[in-house]
Amino acid sequence: MGYVAAGYTIVLTILFLYGLSLAWRRRRLTRAAQRVASSAASSGPGGGRLPR
Amino acid sequence: MRPNPGVLTFPTQSSRGKWTVRIIGIAAALGLALTVWLGLWVTPPDQVQGDLVRLVYIHPGVAWVALYLAFGLAAVASLLYLWPRTRSLFWDRLAAAAVEVGVVFNVCTLISGSIWGKPTWGVWWAWDARLTSTAVLLVLFLGYLALRRVPAEPEVRARRSAFVALFASVDVPIVHFSVLWWKTLHQGATVLNPDLSPTIHGSMAWTLLLGFVALTLVFVWMLLVRYRIGVLSDWLGSHELEAALEERRAEGTATDEDRAA
Hints:
Chain A is an all-alpha fold. Chain A has one helix at residues 2-41. Chain A starts with a helix and ends in an 11-residue tail after the last helix. In chain B, helix 2 packs antiparallel against helix 3 and helix 2 crosses helix 7.
């Protein structure tokens, strides 16, 4: 049963940690994109006008 | 302040899309928890393998996701990118997402198989055709991910990545048929083999099936989140430089005005 427990623990830990890293990366990038978009919008007349 | 029509538009995700991802994530977590509970506590031990059979509820499931879903999807998406009529960066991002998730599942396949192999075969690893071709698949797709990190224009990166994905995908049928083409330590198809007509205990069959469904849902959730990361990352890559340049231009204009004053 030790091998079974090890197998489940390792596989589930890998999947959990990867899932967590995905959620963290998505959150970090969403915030960064929001920051870029809002700084462009608030940089004043002529200042934030960026090409599409 | 006047509204700025030329301003950057944030790549938003619809509320429906967000909820779809959440629901799939919750279903995947519940399905996986149920598989673990059934696999470890409810199903009986096997007559021959004993408790080791419990590893079978996850090992074929992760292999199915890695080989057929992830790398299969990567091959199809790469082909669609290379096809001039369907060429779009959507396919490139999808292929990249599928490969990254597939590599994680491929690692899980090799680890769970190795843990099952030690008490069953007596060794952690054997240079068997199925095991070796699966390890080669992992190395090939790690190469794909490394290639994507080489700086290049998005279209150039997409084109060369698509070629590499198609090249690497040739190994998928080799992995699948390896147990038929060569004499291998790894067993061939069992449950779906009509020649064997295996009988399998009800709870064992359902747990095996549930494992496939749960791990497929985990894959879909990871794929959707990883795809979104690709969208955000590409958007930032193309706009951060423009935003920085615009900031410098604004600073330059302000300095000129100060001098004039």
